[in-house]
Structures are given as C-alpha cells and as structure tokens.
C-alpha cells in the first residue's frame, strides 16, 4: 500500500538515534513504501527557527518526494512573519507547523499563534493547513482555535497523545480538524475508535520520522479492524486531498 | 515467540483484551508461544490473577505463564516467589509505574531477595499506559540492585528516552536483558545489535493492548541479520526461560 506521511522531520533530536540524515530518511521512506513525506525542521522546533527553516527549504528543492511545513515561533513575531513571506510562496511548502508548551513555552492558543493564523488566512489561503503538536491539555485549546478559524485546516498531531479520546470526540464535531496518528505507544482501538467516531476522512497517517519508526503507526493501521478501503484513505487518499497533491 | 502479552480486562479505555482476543492475535501473526498474565493480577489481586493465568496456561500450551506480585500488598512473607516457581510460572513480572510504587522501597528489596533465591527470571515493565513523563534512573537502580545476580532481569516496555541508560547497564551488567515492545526509533535494533547486544533482546508486543503489527513490522524491516532476528524472535527467550 502506498503511503503519504503527514508528519515527519528533518534534522536531529536529543535522543539516541543515528538515522537522522536526509539519505537515512529517504532510505526509511523506501523501506516502508512512503511515497511522499511532509517534514518540519527539528532544528527550527527545538532551537533555531531561521536556520532550521532554511535547511529544510534547501533539502526539499532537490528531492521531489519531500515537502515541508514552515515552523514559526510566537516568541519571535517579526522574524516569523518574515519567514512566512519568504517560504509560503514556495509550492513545496504546504502549510505551517506550530508547537506549544515545552520547546517554546507558549500555550497552543497564544496571541502569537492567532496572529499567524490571521496572516495565513489573509495572505496565503491556499496554504491553510496547520499541523499542531498536540498533547495533554492542548487538545481543548486546538478545538477552540478551530472554531475561531474555520477556514484553516488543523491537523492534530499525535491524535492528541494521551488525550486521544478527547481528540477523537472533538474532531467529530469540528469539520476543520484532522487527526494525525503518529505515536510511539500504539494502543489498540485508537484507529477503530477514530474511524467510528470522527470518520475515516478525518484521519491521516504520520510517522514522526526520524524520532519514531514508521512501523509504529503503520502497524496501527494495518492491524486495525477496519476495511481495506479505510486503510487506503488513512495511508494515502486523505492526504492527497488535504495537501492538494491531485492538483 | 512473544515475551510480553496480557489478557483480561483493561479499565483505562474500551478495548478487547480478552484471552480469546489474545489467542486470535497470536494466531493471526503466527506466534507459536507467548508469555502472558492476567490483568486482574496487576490491577485487582495478584493471587487471583496468578491463578487465572495458570488456568489459561493449562488450557493452552502455547501460553507461558508469568506471575506478578503487587508490591502495594506484598510485604515480604518469604514464600511467594518459591510458590510461583513450584506452580509452574516461568517468570515474575512487576509493574512499578502502573501501580505507583518506587524502586527505593523495602517491599521491593525483599521481593528481589526472594527472586534471587529462587533464581527466577524477572521482568520489570516501565511503560504500559503512556503518561508523557519518563522515569529516567529506574533502569540504573534495577541494574544496581541486581548486579550480583546470574538469573536474568528483562527490562520491558521502555522507549527511546531510556536508550543511553539501558546501553550503559548492558555493558556493565550481563544479567540485564530487554524486550523490544517499545523499540521506537528507526534504528533501534541496529543500535543494540551493532554493539553486540542482539543476544540480550527478546521480542515483545504488549498485545493485545497494543497493536501487534506495530512491534512486528519494526523487527521484520530492521537492518540486522536474519540470524539476529531469529535470536530475537525466539532463541533468546527460550534460553532465558529454559523452555
């Protein structure tokens, strides 16, 4: 089954893994038949916004299977707004990656993030896909943002993590919220519940590569007691529609 | 072989983890033997749970029975582990994080004395229900407390945050082993095998609480030799549990 990975990264993390180079990522993608991956820069998330976004933009240029999310940091508003103007016009930059809590010490629905979303809607309406890292109490905050910005398509990273049941219920009620399934803790029933409650069209495959092996979330889909058609939508078709890969 | 399965009732979200579901999962994935225990022993009463595990093992020879002891209740009677061994259990499993007891804990020290005396393999599980927090230092403590042992200690269900710690103790403590159920970075198997530790890994899935394929796919596609995969899939566990 061909796969589009809606949640991957370029760069290193503060954990012990040696496969973080671009060639490593491409080899892992081939190993799991991942046709396309949408990446954000770990350097931009954890540390240096500008350097990380620049590295990712360079990496995408020569690799047709790689696409990007632009990372923004609400602690650096002017720089972030300049980054939007610099990278969002690039056809391979598909939207925004926004973080909250730990790395940037700001809540998910902070004023800075709201400003980014306003600018996105005003100036870049075709780049209106935003992947939020979403864990713990962030789920309810994301659902609030989704109500305030109905024209933005929100991807709830990690399906809300430990709060996945709330995430699934919330996505069922919010037309513009998608569930991205990457997890290092593949608890059974998550996929079946998400399909049953939120609807299969709301679910996207993501790996969190190279932090997590694609096997973890791929195994969740392959083992889930859902139809083959539903698996194909999660692994591929839903992402084609959301990211407009079909033109 | 699967070193890490459960059966019974899971109270933290709605999911079928019945013995029938476990058997179906093992059948579907071609698992010949699986170490298992009743969740009743973890959550409710370890003696009742252990009896349930034994009953299911008698009905199905593929099920290798693991006993558990709840250290919120045990205070060191001095016979529990020996009884488990005599009843046919092959392994003692402990769940400090799920049950909320620390490793610096007198009942734990007394239980370790019992396990050492009986020379039973011991498996200590770090994560089942993800909480987002990690208890770094637990593996170090376990290694220190069991450093004089010859019988194996298997650290189970730990993720990439613990890799530096487990690598440190693998080098110094030859009795420490690991299960692969939360090996989650793309190069986990390669990381350990390339440092000579393929013989210290047993395959585990956490099924049917976790999706089995999430664990099996990672091993199937790991960049290690077929001989190493064979060791991890069955040979290491057979040796450790003397099957």
Describe this structure in words.
- The complex is a heterodimer of chains A (247) and B (243).
- Chain A is of the alpha/beta class.
- In chain A, 43% of the residues lie in helices and 17% in strands.
- Chain A contains ten helices and eight strands.
- Chain A has helices at 22-31, 42-46, 49-61, 77-87, 111-123, 138-148, 164-173, 190-197, 214-223, 228-242, and strands at 3-10, 34-41, 66-71, 93-98, 129-132, 153-156, 177-180, 203-204.
- In chain A, helix 5 links the parallel strand 4 and strand 5 (129-132).
- The longest helix of chain A has 15 residues, at 228-242.
- The radius of gyration of chain A is 16 Å and the shape is globular.
- The model of chain A has no long low-confidence stretch (mean pLDDT 96).
- In chain B, strand 3, helix 4 (80-87) and strand 4 (91-94) form a beta-alpha-beta unit.
- Chain B has an eight-stranded parallel beta sheet.
- The longest helix of chain B is centred in the last third of the chain and has 16 residues, at 226-241.
- In chain B, 42% of the residues lie in helices and 14% in strands.
- Chain B starts with a strand and ends with a helix.
- In chain B, helix 4 packs across helix 6 (106-118).
- Chain B has 243 residues and is of the alpha/beta class.
- Chain B has helices at residues 19-28, 40-43, 46-59, 80-87, 96-99, 106-118, 138-145, 163-172, 188-193, 212-220, 226-241, and strands at 2-7, 34-38, 63-68, 91-94, 122-125, 153-156, 176-179, 201-202.
- The chains are: A alpha/beta (247), B alpha/beta (243).
């Amino acid at each position: 089954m061909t796969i589009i990975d809606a949640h991957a990264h370029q760069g290193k993390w503060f954990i012990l893994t040696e496969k973080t180079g671009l060639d490593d990522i491409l080899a892992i993608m081939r190993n799991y038949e991942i046709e396309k991956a949408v990446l954000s820069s770990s350097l931009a998330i954890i540390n240096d916004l500008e350097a990380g976004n620049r590295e990712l933009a360079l990496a995408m240029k020569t690799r047709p299977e790689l696409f990007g999310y632009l990372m923004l940091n609400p602690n650096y508003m002017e720089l972030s707004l300049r980054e939007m103007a610099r990278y969002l016009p690039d056809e391979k930059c598909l939207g925004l990656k926004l973080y909250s809590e730990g790395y940037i010490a700001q809540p998910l629905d902070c004023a800075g993030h709201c400003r980014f979303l306003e600018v996105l809607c005003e100036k870049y309406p075709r780049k209106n896909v935003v992947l939020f890292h979403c864990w713990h109490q962030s789920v309810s905050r994301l659902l609030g943002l989704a109500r305030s910005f109905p024209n933005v398509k929100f991807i709830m990273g990690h399906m809300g993590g430990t709060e996945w049941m709330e995430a699934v219920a919330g996505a069922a009620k919010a037309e513009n919220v998608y569930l991205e399934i990457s997890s290092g803790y593949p608890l059974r029933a998550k996929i079946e519940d998400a399909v049953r409650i939120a609807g299969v069209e709301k679910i996207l495959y993501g790996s969190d590569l190279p932090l997590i092996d694609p096997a973890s979330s791929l195994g969740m889909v392959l083992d889930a007691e859902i139809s083959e058609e539903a698996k194909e939508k999660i692994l591929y078709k839903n992402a084609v529609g959301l990211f407009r890969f079909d033109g | 072989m699967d070193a890490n399965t459960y059966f019974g009732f899971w109270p933290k979200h709605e999911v079928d983890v019945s013995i029938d579901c476990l058997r179906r999962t093992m059948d579907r994935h071609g698992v010949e033997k699986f170490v298992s225990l009743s969740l009743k022993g973890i959550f409710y009463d370890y003696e009742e749970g252990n009896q349930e595990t034994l009953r299911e093992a008698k009905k199905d020879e593929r099920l290798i029975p693991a006993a558990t002891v709840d250290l919120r209740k045990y205070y060191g009677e001095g016979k529990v582990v020996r009884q488990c061994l005599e009843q046919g259990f092959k392994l003692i499993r402990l769940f400090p994080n799920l049950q909320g007891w620390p490793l610096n804990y007198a009942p734990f020290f007394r239980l370790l004395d019992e396990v050492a005396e009986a020379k039973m393999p011991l498996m200590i599980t770090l994560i089942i229900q993800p909480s987002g927090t990690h208890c770094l230092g637990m593996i170090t403590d376990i290694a220190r407390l069991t450093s004089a042992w010859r019988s194996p200690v298997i650290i189970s269900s730990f993720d990439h945050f613990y890799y530096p710690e487990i690598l440190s103790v693998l080098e110094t403590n030859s009795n420490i082993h690991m299960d692969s159920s939360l090996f989650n970075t793309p190069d986990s198997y390669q990381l350990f095998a390339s440092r000579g530790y393929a013989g210290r890994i047993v395959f585990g899935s956490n099924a049917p609480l976790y999706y089995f394929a999430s664990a099996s796919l990672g091993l199937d596609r790991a960049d290690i030799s077929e001989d190493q995969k064979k060791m991890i899939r069955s040979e290491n566990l057979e040796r450790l549990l003397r099957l």
